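Protocol step 4 of 6: structure prediction from sequence.
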Amino acid sequence: MNNFHQYITLNKDTVKINLGNGIQIKSLAKINDDLFWLADLQALYKISVSKKAILETVPFDISMCSNKITKLLHHNNKLFIATDRCLMQYANGVWKRLALERSDEIIAVNDMVIPDNGDLWVASQQGLYRLNDTGVFKLDKSSGLLNDYVKSVCLDDSGKLWAATNNGVNIVDIQNLATNKYPHFNIKQDVCSFNIYAISLEKPTSVITQYQLDNDSKWENVINGKIEFCNLKYGKHSVKFQTRLTDNNWLSSKSYDFEIKAPWHQTVAGFGVILLLSVAFIGFLSLYVVKRLKQRNKYLGNLIVEKERLQNELNNSRNTIAKDFHDDLGNKMARISIMSELLINENNVLDSKIKRNLEQIKMDADVLYKNTRDFIWSLSTESNELYEIDLYLCDFAEGFFENLEIRFDVKRNYDQQIKIPYHWSRHIILIFKEIMTNAAKHAQCSDVVFEIKESKGALTLSFKDNGIGLPADAMKSNNGIKNVISRTVKINGKSTFTNLEGGGCEFALTLLIPNVTIPLV
């Protein structure tokens, strides 16, 4: 047989069976003169010699511990599969993992053989095992093997088993195999605790003791001869023990019953007492909470009334201050500007030096009036409304950019009922007046866009131009930009300057709209 790529041949070229691409043969087992099993890394294949074909493909089951097959062996319609991690069985479409020591073991199986009596002998890296209907029997170094690592096994004509180990070959007379006596087995129970005495004077180190809890299929080893089940869930339980020497069958104990009782507070009566106490406590607590809520509601009602009264007084005071500033300071500044202009326009009355001084006075009065007008407007209550700030900035921008022949556009996407803290308005106005002025002086732009939008409690005001962009050193050298950043910090905002890919610059101011709440005491 060859295992190169696509086919196998038997008896030279008498029988040639096409396997297809990708099969890497690891082992095979004879079923009868016509059929045999073949294994690769992915599946089992049932091969017919007479039909020269694969009759059945069986993919490996998820219970397979490994796909590295070391030996296949077929007997009585059962296929035994040895791997480098466990022993598997496949029969009638069902996969089963065979335990040599315990169900979750990892034992490398090197070889297998089945004598006439039907026992399965398994060579592994931990000893030599015999599996039959009575259980599992083990031979290892403590039983007389030269070494625990058994590489391969075979039967001679007399029916004796030859076992090749790392230190030599053992010949085992499996037909007249003598087994040791059972260990002395005694169990003492103290409710949910057990002391297990399993002693062999001949081979004290070869004693194995296990337990099975609540008829579970899994057996666990007993360590140090003592085990407790007091942490199990409340209720009735049972446990069964078994012991053996490594080269003998199991000796089983009777089933021991025990009960884990719940503490009083987890019983029905205890639960009833706790429930009554809880209901009484909740009732008392509810009455107390209702009383406190009534007191708090009354306090909050008074607080809201007082807050509204103080807010109205503050609004009236702000409007009064704004009106007084406008009437007094604004009118006087306007009068200075007008009188200066009248004197400037009178011909042949003033000499050139006085005329220049009057022009400077008029210019300073106009600038002071404009700046004072922003301050006076920020004092009024309408400056608390985002929509009013929007209109104020747009009025300024339309007149400012119209004289410079720059097209101005505005975009809005926000709730017109949004109110902001009163001290924000003046900073926002001065920030964007500075940005607009810089764009007009330095950007060399023809179009500008002012946009306000609100999303999930965040407010973004941006100004975009199509000019030459912001120089790299502008953030350090431009005092106006430094003032913009400083004012942004004062209102807990975030400002960004971005040079656009197609040309121009975008400034964005982001603010979190605060929630106005009344403190609860």
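Step 5 (inspection) to follow. Confidence is low (pLDDT under 50) at residues 1-5, 516-521.
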